[in-house]
Amino acid sequence: MSLGPPEVAPVLSTPDTHVFEDPTPAIDPSLVRTFSDEQLYLTYEIKRTVQEIRHGKYKKIALQFPDHMLTDAPRVFEALQKELDLQKKNEDVTEALDKVSLDSERERLCILGDTSYGACCVDEVAAEHVSAEVVVHYGRTCLSPTQRLPVIYVFTFRPLDLDAVVASFQKTYPEKDHKVVLMADIPYSEHVQPLQSALEKVGYTNLFSTSVVHNPSSLLPNRTVPAGVDEDATVLRDYSLFHISEPPTSLLLNLTSRVASIDIYPTISEGSEAPQAMSASTAQILRRRYALVTNLSTVSVFGILINTLSVKNYMEALAHVQDLITRAGKKYYTFVVGKVNAAKIANFSEVDGWVIIGCWESSLIESKDFWKPIITPFELALALTDERDRIWTGEWNSDFQSLLGKKTVVRGEGTRDDESDEQDGEGINDDSDSESEAPVFDLRTGRYVSQSRPMARPSASASKKTAANSLIKRANGDLAQIGGEVSPAAEYLRSKRTWQGLGTDYEIAYDYDEEGKIKGAAMEEGRGGVARGYVVGDSERS
Fold it and tell me: What angle do CA 365, 366, 370 make, to 5 degrees?
């Protein structure tokens, strides 16, 4: 009997429900638009881009698009190449260029199909793979300073109903003399100045419109600030902030602690009615981040995630983080990752907490999928600060550039001086004070843990002590060491990833001779023969 075709297609791959993480980024359908040739030239600023390329005399250009703009990448490529060739022909007024000379001298464009890190960051890594001399970055950006290559930013102007924004602003701030800072997401930044003019026409008098600047360390990241704020940061607390388009979480946390209030005007409306500004609240997010800081204060082994190779001074930030962890007497491992996901870092179970070094906008990672939490360098400094000195003011800073050069006193450091050490000269070990400190409660395990610092470097006074008058306490048990120092990570690897073999419950008793040496076992003749009958000594057994 012949079987007909199956009613249901056979399963040839893992079901979607078993996939650990979908690597395909979600694209907002509202961001995918079809442009005419004129709109394409205006949105992607073809004329200005060509002028900057020719002014810089760049021959190899890398074009970086976010995922939702890749559909326009071929058209942008063709428009740029057309304008570059046209301007090159017009520059020669003496004689026409032949086809051979044009092809040999024309600029080479390359589309970066995928980014090594976040779409907001300039991908210098991929650009250097194609030997690019400049990167043209499209879409919203974090404006982090680059390490090596120059950048041409194209923010891709997006339309906005200005009348609807004005109406929403009037409902949010009925008082005409209210101090308000006007700010917008990068693609909507050109609407800020026209919005101020429209609001002043209806009677508002205390408005400040921000402009885009390349300074993530500013009190308003990458934006200008009102007069007097540079001299006194508290002046900004007198202002409310009206933000067009929802900002990233990291930016929102930065702004919340620096202005009186924040109201966000959404640019994507789900219904037919005009969107209204909503008051932003970050109290819950800040409480959750502070809980992470408290949980990681007792961690012994940290993992450092380098999530950028393009942001300027990232090596200085790495050295700063390593110094904090080392001075706290803890261990760290350093990893370089592109796109961070739970599957990658779950392979390193000995790491109890992670510190990420990336751009200020994408370094805040909140996800329950991660086995161990990820914090920022700013949070690491709080976690390693002694509980008596740790003060949570609600301030937030995600830019590691502003943390460089700041001295942070970590737990167990700076409590003793050289003078007191020199007075303890009777053979008493100074490190006993740190060993006798009260244990702290670990919120991760629900247990009290010791505040000993096994990876701490010996003090200068301890190095001066001689072996004759030094009292050394032997460690309880056999602990794994690296370079003569107890290593928590090495001990974890030995205990968790080492097969101990089969043991026995019987105690072995040894006989000793007069000299105290173990007597050797007497040699006896063993069993011999074949399976049908064995011989034990002089007797035969069947």
Answer: 90
Q: How confident is the model at residue 46 (pLDDT cuts 50, 70, 90)?
A: very high
Outline where DSSP puts E strands in 5-142: 60-64, 108-112, 134-138
Q: Which of 418, 414, 448, 419 is nearest to 434 (CA)?
A: 414
Write out the residue range of the structural domain in which residue 467 sits.
418-496
Residues 256 and 289 in one domain: no
Please give the C-alpha separations between residue 308 and each of 246, 301, 360, in angstroms, as whole numbers. Answer: 24, 22, 11
CB–CB of 350/489 below 8 Å? yes
Q: Per mean pLDDT, which range of 104-113, 174-183, 449-458, 531-540 is the poorest?
A: 449-458
Model pLDDT, residue 206: 93
End-to-end Cα separation, the chain, in angstroms: 63
Contact 135, 151 (CB under 8 A): yes
Q: How far lies 133's CA from each of 60, 63, 64, 121, 141, in Å?
A: 5, 11, 13, 17, 20
Element (H, E) at 355: strand 353-357
Task: Give dist(CA 117, CA 190) in Å, integer.
Answer: 27
For position 225, which CATH number holds?
3.40.50.11850
Q: Which two tokens stand for residue 23?
A: 């690597």
Q: Taking the complete model, does pTM exceed 0.85, yes or no?
A: no
User: What is the separation of C-alpha 512 from the centre of its chain, rounded to a whole number of angstroms?
Assistant: 63
Contacts of 258 (CB under 8 A, 6+ apart): 219, 220, 233, 236, 237
- Contact by Cβ (8 Å): 143, 216: yes
Q: What's the pLDDT tens digit per position in 165-222?
A: 999 999 999 999 999 999 999 999 999 999 999 999 999 999 999 999 988 888 899 9
**Cα–Cα distance measured from residue 154 to residue 55, given in angstroms and rounded to the nearest whole number:** 16
Same domain, 175 and 191: yes
Amino acid letter, residue 532: R
Among residues 137, 154, 171, the one where a domain terminates is 154
H or E, element range at 490: helix 488-496
Q: Which helix H or strand E contains 79, and what residues bound it?
A: helix 73-91
Q: How many domains does the chain have?
A: 4
State pLDDT tens for residues 487-540.
666 666 667 666 666 666 666 677 778 887 877 777 777 777 777 777 776 665
Query: Quick one: average pLDDT of 303-312?
Result: 86
3-state secondary structure at position 303? strand
Of the given ranges (110-119, 185-194, 313-322, 445-454), which has the lowest mean pLDDT?
445-454
Inter-residue contact 257 to 378 (CB < 8 Å): no
Is 440:385 a contact under the CB 8 Å cutoff? no
